Amino acid sequence: MSETASDRGASAPAGRRVAGILRSRPVLTLAMVALVWIAASLTSRGFGSYGHLRYLVELAAVIGIVAAGQTFVMIAGGIDLSVGAVITISAVGVPLLSWPWDPGGTAGVAGILVISVAIGAVNGIGVAYLRVHPMIMTLAMATLLQGALILVAGGSAVSVQSPAVVWLGNARPFGVPAGILLWLAVSAATLWVLHATRFGARLFALGANPLATLLSGVDVSATIVTVYAMSGLTAGLAGVLVLGMNGQGYVGIGDPYLLTSIAAVVLGGTSILGGAGTYAGTIPGAVMLVTITGLITVVNASAGWRSILFGSLILGLLLLSGRESRR
């Protein structure tokens, strides 16, 4: 039976939709992760085991959670360079916020999350009302927080005693690490806010054209403060998870997550200029970065060479995943 003109007309849009899906950045990033996992499984014994892959995803949960807030900020046209310091504040602060009337430790976790949101809100106020550039504002905040940490913690590590934090870092409900379940919850909430709410639509509009967004009646300043507060919340949440997984917090524990959170967002297809992107791409981006780190670890090289290799691979992946178009 020969194909009719109407059949060809119906199949053409379907073909374009499939081609569009295959060209999307989230799908491309996911395909890169799959290719790296397959290649590493064939060349490295034990890499492809279920336990090892689950461990990689568990490690990626920290990057994925902090990158959720970074995705909000970057889509809105900003950037948050204080997330590493907020993670450290959270990881060091939870053990300090323990009281006899809170044996479960939930009040301490809630308290540090409130502090994290407040730090993010101060960043937003500086950007929105004081007109400080996001890079300068958040970098200054990071420096301020690091100095405060040295004064408070004195450079020594603090061990976690909170049962709630220990549970978050070590429990495996239904065989799945609690950190991964937390990441799933954060991912679902992030995707819903970005793509199914008016607030998410405002972020895309703000990142694409701030002046037009202001003229359309959107409270731009309040939106900016909110988005930085959300970044503070996810960074604080990531700090609690890091503390639970490591068992102790110390000055500098959050530093590695600054570059990786930005790289995960960009790898996933979110424009660093704002106005475009999705958290659906940040998720495989976070997994890709942890996979690269794991592969570099097996290389018998000094810490300096491992850092050079890691930075070079991130730069290469960012170039491969597409250069930022000029607007």
Summarize the structure.
Keywords: Cell membrane, Membrane, Transmembrane, Transmembrane helix. Its main location: membrane. The protein has 327 residues and is an all-alpha fold.
Description:
This protein has 327 residues and is an all-alpha fold. It has 14 helices and 2 strands, in the order H-H-H-H-H-H-E-H-H-H-H-H-E-H-H-H. It has a two-stranded antiparallel ribbon with strand order 1-2. Helix 12 (256-267) crosses helix 13 (279-297). The longest helix has 27 residues, at 220-246. It is a multi-pass membrane protein. Keywords: Cell membrane, Membrane, Transmembrane, Transmembrane helix. The chain crosses the membrane at residues 26-43, 55-76, 83-101, 107-130, 142-168, 174-194, 201-218, 257-281, 287-320. It is found in: Cell membrane.
Q: Work out the radius of gyration.
A: 21 Å
Look at the structure and give the mean pLDDT: 86
Query: Which descriptor suits the 3D outline?
Result: globular
Q: List low-confidence stretches.
A: none
Largest sheet: 2 strands, antiparallel
Oligomeric state: single chain
Q: Which strand-content bin applies to the residues?
A: under 5%
Kindly report how far apart the N and C termini lie. 49 Å
Task: Give the % helix.
Answer: over 70%
Strand order of the largest sheet: 1-2
Order of helices and strands: HHHHHHEHHHHHEHHH
Q: Give the number of DSSP strands.
A: 2
Count of helical regions: 14
Structural class call reads: mainly alpha
Subcellular location: Cell membrane
Organism: Labrys monachus
Transmembrane segments: 26-43, 55-76, 83-101, 107-130, 142-168, 174-194, 201-218, 257-281, 287-320
Keywords: Cell membrane, Membrane, Transmembrane, Transmembrane helix
